[in-house]
Design goal:
alpha+beta, five-stranded antiparallel β-sheet, 10 helices, globular, disordered N terminus
Length: 303
């Protein structure tokens, strides 16, 4: 079993400042963040819109504003509809770790780092602590923007901003801790863990081979299942058939190419696994609500 299946290879931040901010705000186009996982913690602020998100084997429909807490190793994806607004702060929990032992390191930081303690998956607007958590997040977001725009030569200012960011993350943890919102993980569901590992393996294979024909027998063989049972297994865990998922990945890769390259549409269709241009255009419009050429036009307009 390949434990690195679907692991995101993106470097978040820099060696000196291992923290990154990602933002989405588009009136014209939608986007899907494909299933992936990483070793960092991710706080996602769904500011405006209706979102479909998927964590491990669970699907959620979330109306913004809301905040998602994604932990290291958790397989997740997110659909960003046109008109939606969201941002994400990604950081490794070790930036909050103390060099010297104390009660907070023992009761909070170390358990969070090794998975014995977790933040709540979802905080929605009706949660009593949502206004405080949102305030912490928004302050952190502003400080990260300031730090990113600060020239490297202004080391004093940049380091000061990074210190303020860490202080805000501690404040967020303190709010969760004080309100008994941190969740102890007392036992691991081995069967569920195996399911997640199998899904990571299948989804990684699709992500690496979407441009070529993919047979269900190939996918089923990856997890030692027969094709009929694999189809049920995939739909139960993903909420869609393997064929639907493969086509979604191909459309997202095509959308990325339309937005970032000048390649001809027929070339993009071929490079993303569609042999028939007419079928590609129909599938694309069904997913995105616009034709490939209109999607490219809107993407260029929003740059």
């Amino acid at each position: 079993m390949d434990l690195h299946s679907l692991k995101e290879n993106t470097t978040h931040g820099t060696v000196r400042f291992p923290l990154a901010l990602y933002e989405w705000d588009s009136a014209d186009i939608s986007w899907k963040v494909s299933p992936h996982w990483h070793e960092e913690m991710e706080l996602i602020y769904l500011k405006r819109g209706s979102f479909r998100t998927w964590l491990n084997t669970r699907e959620f429909l979330v109306e913004g504003p809301a905040i998602l807490c994604i932990h290291a190793g958790e397989l997740h994806c997110l659909e960003l509809p046109a008109g939606a607004q969201e941002s994400a702060i990604v950081f490794h929990l070790n930036i909050l770790s103390f060099e010297h032992y104390d009660a907070i390191q023992a009761k909070l930081i170390r358990p969070l780092m090794d998975g014995r303690l977790k933040m709540p998956l979802l905080l929605e607007r009706d949660s009593p602590i949502f206004p405080q958590i949102r305030d912490c997040y928004e302050q952190t977001e502003r400080k990260v923007r300031q730090m990113n725009s600060c020239p490297d030569k202004e080391e004093l200012t940049k380091n000061s901003l990074y210190l303020q960011i860490k202080a805000l993350l501690y404040s967020l943890l303190a709010i969760l801790y004080q309100n008994n919102c941190l969740i102890p993980v007392r036992e691991i569901n081995n069967e569920n863990e195996q399911q997640i590992r199998n899904l990571k393996k299948v989804l990684r294979y699709i992500g690496e081979n979407y441009a070529s024909p993919i047979r269900l027998e190939e996918l089923a063989g990856l997890v030692n299942l027969n094709s009929q049972y694999f189809c049920r297994y995939f739909k139960e865990n993903m909420g869609k058939t393997a064929t639907e998922y493969i086509n979604e990945i191909r459309i997202e890769k095509a959308a990325e190419a339309l937005a970032e390259t000048d390649d001809k549409i027929i070339t993009i269709a071929e490079n993303t696994g569609f042999e028939n241009i007419g079928y590609f255009i129909r599938r694309f419009k069904g997913e995105k609500g616009v034709t490939p050429s209109e999607y490219r036009r809107r993407s260029n307009k929003s740059k």
